[in-house]
Design a protein that fits this description.
Elements lengths: L1 H25 L12 H91 L5 H40 L1
Helix pairs in contact: 1-2, 2-3
């Protein structure tokens, strides 16, 4: 910017000298100067130098504008890719949280069933210790054990589904 201001000042001074030279040519001098420098030649050189400098500055400005536009386009592409990545990660996080919640529910169910199984097994042991084999306690124990095994199997299926869900993106990337 300082260069532009300096060149602008030089051009203004050169134009003032040209104007003064033109005005002096319009009114003939009373006496020819003894040894006057060739003002129009000096002014033409200054104007040519100023014009060349201006063109160079305009060219540099255009180059900078092109470079800036290229950088802005690159930043826009990077931001778009980053936004896509973030959206993908947020979706994966939601899915992971859903799977985790499902696993947590299954674990709670297993804990409840195991507590019931322990209670029935304790009742069955007490009955056996008294030599009283009650069929309904045996049936109840067997049903509790079957429910516990079903819940365990469902938890294992949920865990396998979670592992498969994690492996799918890796398989897609490898393909």
């Amino acid at each position: 910017m300082d260069d532009i201001a300096e060149l602008e000042g030089r051009i203004t001074r050169a134009l003032d000298r040209i104007r003064a030279g033109v005005e002096s040519m319009a009114t003939p001098p009373a006496a020819p100067p003894a040894e006057a420098p060739d003002v129009p030649a000096l002014d033409a050189e200054a104007v040519a130098a100023a014009e060349a400098a201006r063109e160079e500055l305009e060219q540099r400005l255009e180059e900078e504008k092109r470079a800036s536009a290229a950088l802005e386009a690159r930043v826009a592409r990077l931001k778009e890719r980053q936004d896509e990545k973030i959206a993908g990660l947020e979706e994966a996080l939601r899915e992971g949280r859903g799977r985790l919640a499902s696993l947590g529910e299954e674990m709670e169910r297993i804990k409840q069933l195991n507590a019931e199984l322990r209670a029935v097994a304790a009742s069955l042991r007490e009955a056996m210790a008294r030599d009283v084999a009650e069929a309904h306690l045996v049936n109840k124990a067997m049903l509790a054990e079957i429910d516990s095994l079903k819940a365990l199997r469902e938890t294992e299926v949920a865990e396998i589904d979670a592992v498969i869900a994690e492996l799918r993106p890796l398989a897609r990337e490898g393909a």
